[in-house]
Amino acid sequence: MNKKNKIKIAVGLSGGVDSSVAVLLLKQQGYDVTGVFMRNWSEELPEIKGCPWEVDQRDAQLVAAELDIPFYVVNFEKEYYDHVVKYMIDAYQAGITPNPDIMCNQEIKFGIFLDKMIKLGFDKIATGHYARVEEHKGQYKLLAGIDKNKDQSYFLCRLNQQQLSKSLFPIGEISKPEVRKLAEKAGLNTSDKKDSQGICFIGNIKVRDFLKRWLKPTVGKIVDINNKKILGDHIGLEYFTIGQREGIEVGGTGPYYVVDRDFKSGDLLVTNNQEDQLLYQQEFQLDQINWIAKDIRLPLECGFRIRYRDKIIPGVLDKDNIVKLVTKQRAVTSGQSAVFYLDDEVLGSGIIV
User: Fold this and answer.
1) 36 in a domain, yes or no?
2) Cis peptide leading into 46, omega within 30 of 0?
3) For the domain that residue 173 is a member of, what is the CATH number?
């Protein structure tokens, strides 16, 4: 008997093509696979047509039936609100820009879900992330996915050695087009399903529309930071982030870009120069450092990615947790994660102050 037949894997089956193919590959490799759908948000929102979770759960269940594996549903709605939604609301209310996808991975998928599955007797969990894990002498490396256009290692930057030791990313070695082809060849119902958009687990809704349900906005004037001219009124500082262009409706010589937010005066400070140096920063402070790699010594020369899909920029992290990049970067934003890379390996990350 193949040793893998005895290894029990709980796959986070989301109802999308990526996790569907993750199940397919694991089953082909001989693992004992079970599909698990996480119901994290079921409240109907008027901004979203239909109930996304019902469609996703149905599609996940169909994939499990097509691949002849057990299927279960777990409900983490309370935990998701406590650890992700509340974190998101509190961050925006405090004037910083959070990353709910990173928090969801840290607290839900590789936190509560992983813990529950291990307690139920599974050996590991797997997800449809485009990333890779390699083990060497008891140490685990988090590596970028082979498909650089879909690499999701940025969103996994707050995981730790224990979580990585219990996690598999079956599609990290292949590209998105290959994933689609495998799903189509296997006749999976998700083979042509569009990738999910919007807020993780909630659906295709703009962050601003979602926040309007929860926040008491700080209203005020839109002010050109260069000539101090008042351009109009805004709907709330909490709804804007540094570098943002969308939603600044003032006409004139725009478009305008957010440079800063003054919570004392209520002013939204903007510029109509996309290359304005006020939008750029070469040095910034980090907090809440999370190291994945072991035996790191500071100062550390490596690459830094400050947003998903941004280029990795060389720089140095010093002993005071200050990052100094070799070139200025646009819209460095408090609350976002700066992720440290050495070639394809994620060394760790920190929260931009």
Assistant:
1) yes
2) no
3) 3.40.50.620
The Cα 316–Cα 322 span in angstroms is 8
Check whether the bond before 299 is cis (ω within 30° of 0). yes
- CA-to-CA distance for 233 and 243, rounded, in angstroms? 18
- Concatenating the DSSP letter of every residue in 106-163 gives IIIIIIIIHHHHHHTT-SEEE---SEEEEEETTEEEEEE-S-TTT--GGGGTT--HHH
59 and 21 in a single domain? The answer is: yes
Tens of pLDDT along 97-133?
A: 999 999 999 999 999 999 999 999 999 999 999 999 9
Q: How far is Cα 163 from Cα 311, in angstroms, rounded to an integer?
A: 27
Neighbours of 134 (CB within 10 A): 12
Residues carrying an active site annotation:
104, 200
Query: Residue 284 is part of a domain; what is its CATH number?
Result: 2.40.30.10
Residues 123 and 71 grouped into a single domain: yes
Taking only Cα atoms into account, the Rg of the chain, rounded to an integer number of angstroms, comes to: 22
Predicted confidence (pLDDT) per residue in 142-197, tens digit = 999 999 999 999 999 999 999 999 999 999 999 999 999 999 999 999 999 998 87
Would you state the pLDDT for residue 247?
82
Alpha carbons 99 and 79: distance in angstroms, whole number: 17
- Could you list the residue range(s) of the whole structural domain that residue 241 is in? 216-271
What are the tens digits of pLDDT across the range 188-241?
999 999 988 777 777 778 888 899 888 999 999 999 999 999 999 999 999 999
Domain count for the chain = 3
Q: How far apart are CA 124 and CA 163, in angstroms?
A: 9
> Does residue 105 lie within any of the structural domains?
yes
Q: Are residues 319 and 195 in the same domain?
A: no
Q: Is residue 209 part of a domain?
A: no
